[in-house]
Amino acid sequence: MFKQIRDCLRSEEGPTAVEYAVMLALIVIVCLSAIKTVGTNAKTTYTNVANSIGS
Q: What is d(CA 40, CA 52) in angstroms, rounded to the nearest whole number?
């Protein structure tokens, strides 16, 4: 039983899974920020075009 616990503590699968989860979270944050920025820029552009057409 102690051998199984020792082997489990030495296993590197747990830290690897945590590293992948952190990387995935960072990627999601970057993607959401990029989407928000593109959306804001598109809204500004469409507003400017609409104002130009309306004038």
A: 18
**What is the three-class DSSP state of 54?**
helix
List pLDDT tens digits, range 8-50: 666 666 667 788 889 999 999 999 999 999 999 999 999 999 9
Query: Could you tell me which of 37, 17, 35, 39 has the C-alpha nearest to residue 27?
Result: 35
3-state secondary structure the chain: CHHHHHHHHHCCHHHHHHHHHHHHHHHHHHHHHHHHHHHHHHHHHHHHHHHHHHC
Helices and strands in the chain: count of H runs, count of E runs: 2, 0
Locate 12 and state its tokens: 């590197």
